[in-house]
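Whiteboard transcription, Tuesday session. T.W. wrote the structure tokens on the left side:
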């Protein structure tokens, strides 16, 4: 039986290409009809905005419109004020680009497009006006109109013509991620009988990366065409609950490793029931019986409580949380599937428990990226003004655009280099269109027919992630050359000069990026780890309450970001033992200890505070590149804290502190046995006052 040959073009790819081409031609026609000076800019914008998912196109369009208007306003404000000093004007434009790029890199949602567009839009409008500032208002208005026409045409076409909604794609990813989480949970529950553990670091990193990608996709939901947009709160609540599964399941694995061979038979039976329940099998009593059984088996904290009892209590508490999270995810998914407009009373609070700081942000790299953009613009503008080059403004525009486009990457140089290579490859095709084909056309329908073969073909490759960058470079190279027709300069000399300026601008961006902005995957991985260590150190010294969800979400995001960088970094001695998931567990236990400590009134509070100080000092050392294991004096501090906590009057805060303390000990010293605290040590137990 023969295997069917793969399709050269899929239906989705063909549909995307046709829609993108239709949007571009509609934008071009409207721009021509309005008599705008650069109609091909509208065509180029339509392609830049187009995407396979209609919700993503609309969400980005809103911010693109705002960013374009903001960039235009900046150009109109700066150019007349500094028209008499080209050097100061180009510096001011470069500073605007740098500041906007800095702000955009501090927001990893579609909102970042607003500031990125504001940055390089001022370059597109402002640099050509340096030599002719008298027309800045008319030029700015025309550029905004052309760009807005492209945005609106792409948005309308992708929203109306066979729209591909974000909702179904998001729900498919959500279900797949939930299945992965359930599989890893079951593997963790079998840890008692699986010494090596089925769940490995790659699975953890993949789960973290998937949850982060789901968060980004969910930002498009309010702009989607599907009914899922009404379920945005429930989708985000489900993502928040799934985020806790990563540290929770990793902690359960660790506790089962520690207690292997020492678990009571009833706890082993509970694990078997829980495994079947997660798998979807009917378990008598369901989640309610599992919770009751966990409560019955949980050991009470007393004056003689040791690390084994504390670790068992920690395990059972984590199992209770595991039941709650899986049940919440199932209920939320059923709610989304039913499309109900309101949540049950039990689930409604989950949708209101939102944290604003869910992504890792690197202000230092954002600032450095802005400086690199400013430096590149300054270099090319100095050459332009110094030589009086007539096309220097185009080179400055390209430098601004390409310093912004790839700034979010660790090493933007490969992306810029690829765009430069395929821009050069587009020159013969652009010359053929500009100098041979288009001069013979005298009507818009003939223009469309002439452009269709090339742009419909390139559109198919734009729809493929593996070839999108190359195809967009070819496409933009051709459209950029066609824009010479707008100015009536479609001759060979103008064509050559324009392409040289474009290449010089991209090459300048590449050179500056290679010299002062490119960093390796290993460098970025270390920076991510140090960011997590610094945050843990700051948490140990926090005087106010630690917001629920903030640290967890940021660390989870860092785990996902680390996964790809560790894979690219190769063997690195200092990264081999890096475990951001363990750092996440440390941070969660530190946060829990901080919250519980404030409610403790007995002698345990100073011991917990002293322990947190020592842990903070250790992580400050890690973040300062002084790598090493936790100092030995932390262990007697932990023993003292446990001994004094066990003597505290019974309370929910005391039990939470004991559970967190056991988790912190396992995270920092995973190879220790359950030796009981030495009661003869004077530092361990202080008299409990009434």
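and on the right, the sequence the group agreed on:
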């Amino acid at each position: 039986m023969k295997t069917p040959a793969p399709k050269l073009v899929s239906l989705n790819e063909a549909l995307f290409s046709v829609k993108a081409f239709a949007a571009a031609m509609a934008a071009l026609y409207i721009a021509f009809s309005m008599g705008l000076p650069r109609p091909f800019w509208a065509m180029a914008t339509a392609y830049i905005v187009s995407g396979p998912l209609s919700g993503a196109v609309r969400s980005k369009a809103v911010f693109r419109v705002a960013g374009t208007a903001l960039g235009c306003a900046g150009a109109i404000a700066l150019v007349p004020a500094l028209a008499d000093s080209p050097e100061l004007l180009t510096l001011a434009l470069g500073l605007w680009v740098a500041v906007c790029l800095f702000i955009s890199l501090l927001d990893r949602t579609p909102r970042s497009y607003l500031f990125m567009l504001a940055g390089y839009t001022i370059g597109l409008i402002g640099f050509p006006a340096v030599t002719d500032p008298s027309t800045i208002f008319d030029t700015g208005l025309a550029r905004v109109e052309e760009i807005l026409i492209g945005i609106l045409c792409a948005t309308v076409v992708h929203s109306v013509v066979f729209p591909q909604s974000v909702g179904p794609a998001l729900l498919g990813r959500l279900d797949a991620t939930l299945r992965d989480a359930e599989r890893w949970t079951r593997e963790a529950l079998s840890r008692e009988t699986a010494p090596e553990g089925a769940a490995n670091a790659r699975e953890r990193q993949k789960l973290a990366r998937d949850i982060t990608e789901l968060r980004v996709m969910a930002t498009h939901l309010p702009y989607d065409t599907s009914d899922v947009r009404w379920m945005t709160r429930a989708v985000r609540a489900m993502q928040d609950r799934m985020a806790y599964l990563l540290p929770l399941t990793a902690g359960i694995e660790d506790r089962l490793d520690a207690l292997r061979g020492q678990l009571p038979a009833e706890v082993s039976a509970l694990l078997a029931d829980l495994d079947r329940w997660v798998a979807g099998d009917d378990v008598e009593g369901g989640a309610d019986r599992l919770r009751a059984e966990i409560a019955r088996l949980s050991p009470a904290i007393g004056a003689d409580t040791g690390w084994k009892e504390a670790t068992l209590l920690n395990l059972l508490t984590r199992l209770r949380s595991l039941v709650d999270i899986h049940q919440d995810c199932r209920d939320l998914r059923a709610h989304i599937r039913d499309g109900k407009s309101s949540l049950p009373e039990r689930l409604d609070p989950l949708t209101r428990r939102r944290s604003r700081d869910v992504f890792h942000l690197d202000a230092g790299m954002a600032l450095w990226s802005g400086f690199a953009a400013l430096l590149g613009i300054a270099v090319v503008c100095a050459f332009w003004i110094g030589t009086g080059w007539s096309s220097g403004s185009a080179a400055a525009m390209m430098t601004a655009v390409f310093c912004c486009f790839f700034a979010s990457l660790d090493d933007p140089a490969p992306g810029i280099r690829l765009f430069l290579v395929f821009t050069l490859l587009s020159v013969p095709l652009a010359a053929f269109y500009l100098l041979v084909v288009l001069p013979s056309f005298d009507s818009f329908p003939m223009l469309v027919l002439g452009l269709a073969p090339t742009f419909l073909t390139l559109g198919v490759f734009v729809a493929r992630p593996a070839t999108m960058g190359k195809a967009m470079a070819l496409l933009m190279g051709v459209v950029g050359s066609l824009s010479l027709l707008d100015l009536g300069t479609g001759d060979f000399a103008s064509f050559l000069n324009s392409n040289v300026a474009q290449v010089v601008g991209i090459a300048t961006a590449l050179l500056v990026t290679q010299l002062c902005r490119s960093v390796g995957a290993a460098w970025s991985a270390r920076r991510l780890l140090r960011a997590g260590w610094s945050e843990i150190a700051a948490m140990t010294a926090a005087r106010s309450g630690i917001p629920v969800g903030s640290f967890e979400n940021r660390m989870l995001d860092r785990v996902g970001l680390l996964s790809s960088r560790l894979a690219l970094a190769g063997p690195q001695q200092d990264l081999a033992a890096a475990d951001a998931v363990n750092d996440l567990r440390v941070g969660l236990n530190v946060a829990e200890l901080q919250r519980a400590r404030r409610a403790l009134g007995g002698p345990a509070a100073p011991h917990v505070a002293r322990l947190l100080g020592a842990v903070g000092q250790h992580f400050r050392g890690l973040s300062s590149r002084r790598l090493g294991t936790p100092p030995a004096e932390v262990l007697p501090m932990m023993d003292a804290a446990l001994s004094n906590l066990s003597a505290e009057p019974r309370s929910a805060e005391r039990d939470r502190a004991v559970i967190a303390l056991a988790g912190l000990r396992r995270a920092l010293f995973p190879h220790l046995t359950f030796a009981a605290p030495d009661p003869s040590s004077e530092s361990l137990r202080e008299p409990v006052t009434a």
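Someone added at the bottom: The chain has 26 helices and no strands.
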